[in-house]
Amino acid sequence: MRIAQIAPLAEAVPPPRYGGTERVVAYLTEELVRAGHEVTLFASGDSCSSARLVPCAPRSLRTDPSRPDPLVYHVLELEQVRRQADEFDLFHFHIDFLHFPLCYELPGPTLTTLHGRLDRPDLAVLFELFSDLPIVSISHAQREPIPRANWIGTVYHGLPLALYPPRFSGGGGYLAFLGRICPEKGPEQAVEIACRAGLPLKIAAKVDPVDEGYWRQRVEPLIARSPGVEFLGEIDDRQKVRFLGEALALLFPIDWPEPFGMVLIEAMACGTPVIAYRRGAVPEVVVDGESGWIVDSVEEAVEAVRAIGALDRRRVRALAAQRFSSSRMADDYLALYRRLLGGGGPERPKPADSRKPSLLDEWSRLSPAEKSTLRR
Q1: What phi and psi, each to the nearest 5 degrees, are found at residue 60?
Q2: Does 2-160+329-343 carry CATH code 3.40.50.2000?
Q3: The pTM is what?
Q4: Using one digit for the tens of pLDDT, what is the confidence trace for 175-201?
């Protein structure tokens, strides 16, 4: 099978430090190549892959000091795909929905995996207009805001288990917070949980420019006045394995509809249980009482920390291996690829029935004030 994988350009594939979508694309691409498929990866020029790499930006956009316009480079990426389209049997996109109009010009079927949150009112209009394009969710919870999209499957993320050996036993005696500093990820709640539980907390996270104010005004002062809380900044993959493996538990006190939560399966692959808020995909990823504890408040999280010794770290690892391997993820996608190739590509959208206004028609009739109210 000749497969085009089209990745976002914010990070390299795989990212050297923080990065979710590009990391998933890297793991999937490697598994497809290992299975004998002819894979071409459209990604930033500093990516590293066993597939044929088509560089669509000189380097990952987040690390480029010139602060390039992401839209410009993603349009250039789509043009690269268009020019080489005859070389592929199938096109797998991971760049949200920028490519939707192009899908009708491509010679083979397309598949789009949505990796982000979908609870914006505008998206319902978009997915009604492109209602025939095949879409994959990364959790069932992710689908809830746009149930009318053409969902053809849910594929949970996976990772190469060899990269996350369960060599460590939580002997570091600390709680871990991993990912990104922003309000929805709950770093302030993590500090409160650790302090109330009387345990050290290590925070390994990046701070994006958009969250710099939140970091300086809220999180950095909180860390400074909280004994036992240490900020490590971004860490690489090798550091991450030790960081997670030596932790008693990973704290995941999110305040948003998390579409999946890659750090959850990274921790569990190391045998480290997680303590996570019941939001978004968390109940699909965490087996409550086996691979971690699902909680609804700081108070419940503190109690879960005290009960973390009741969880068997070998069982945590076993569940991760069973449910979240990169080979399982690739098998799931291959089944969808074969299904699409058997049925051909998408047809052009049919005109909306004039007797029944579409969401796009309804949206166009709203005043600016009404649209602003919906967005809020």
Answers
A1: -60, 135
A2: yes
A3: 0.88
A4: 999 999 999 999 999 999 999 999 999
